[in-house]
Amino acid sequence: MKPDTTHIVDAPAVATVVSEVGLGRLYDLAIERLTEVLTYSGPARAEMKTRDGFLLTTPRLGLLEWMPAVRHGATVSMKLVGYNPHNPVKNQLPTILSTLLAFDVDSGHLRAIVDGTFATAIRTGAASALASRALARPDSSVLGLIGCGAQAVTQLHALARAFPLTEVLVCDTDIRAESSFAARARMPDGLVRVAEPAEVEERADILCTATSVAPDQGPVLQGTSLRPWVHINAVGSDMPGKTELPLELLRDAVVVPDHREQAMAEGECQRLRPEEIGPSLTELLTDPARQAELRDRRTVYDSTGLALQDLVMVELLEELAREAGAGHRLVIEATAHDPQDPYSFLPESVSRAPWPAQEV
Questions:
Q1: Alpha-carbon span 161 to 232, nearest angstrom
Q2: What are the φ and ψ backbone dihedral angles of 37, each rounded to 5 degrees?
Q3: Is 90 known to be catalytic?
Q4: Which among 2, 49, 79, 242 is annotated as catalytic?
């Protein structure tokens, strides 16, 4: 049957999917498929274009970006994402809002529209878990979180799928976010504890920075008392001038970017020379010996966010929603009954040719 509807996987549909599959299983699937897409090199390989967008300065600092990717033979995806750090206080909305689009590669048909706000949080956490699994000690048990917003929740939950965490130390300059984190994290009682930044640095085996620090206002940690083997997931850098880690720490550690050029433009790597940057995450995933060598060193995963991660999530959520019978379908495109007649979708009464009025 000719496809003529678009599958709308909105927030209620995503909630149905998570109820059916379970949050833990969803993280596992995201990590598994992200690994596949980053390491696969066959004919159905995936690739992405450099993201682009607008830097918004009025009425407040923000971003609106678009992130395209393709899995050849299957899907073209596009994410539209807004970053507005004032949202939680001013608008009672998440800092990051986004929408995912999936297009059929054979026809160009808009196959699905999927909520991207939840998907972005999940895939960013899943990417950190994947990088940490490659770079952190397998027995890492103390997690430090600097920044207690929405992304910190998914960092914790994704890492809890990969490591035997016994303690989670958190801190934030926003006291409300800091004090409410344990309740929002929904982890076993006693696992999460608010701590001073110095203690977080001293005791963490894995450390995640996920802050809304303004450009040129970092770093968000001192970096002077970290464990020799600490692995850091630097999640917050996503625009020129915005960084979270001290330059001395970056130069001392092995920095693994998710995407080298993108990280040099707007990640932690923007302050490093090319020769100071380590292998990309994709390169590292195909080199087990290098992974083992780095687990006893300080390492940084420079997470700027990939369109390939969004491709994974739009395909995954579309698939799970279809299996669960979740979401609804709309006719969005004016797909004509007669492909050569652009008016064939209109009622006959209004589709008569718009001839100009005769001159009198």
A1: 17
A2: -70, -30
A3: no
A4: 79
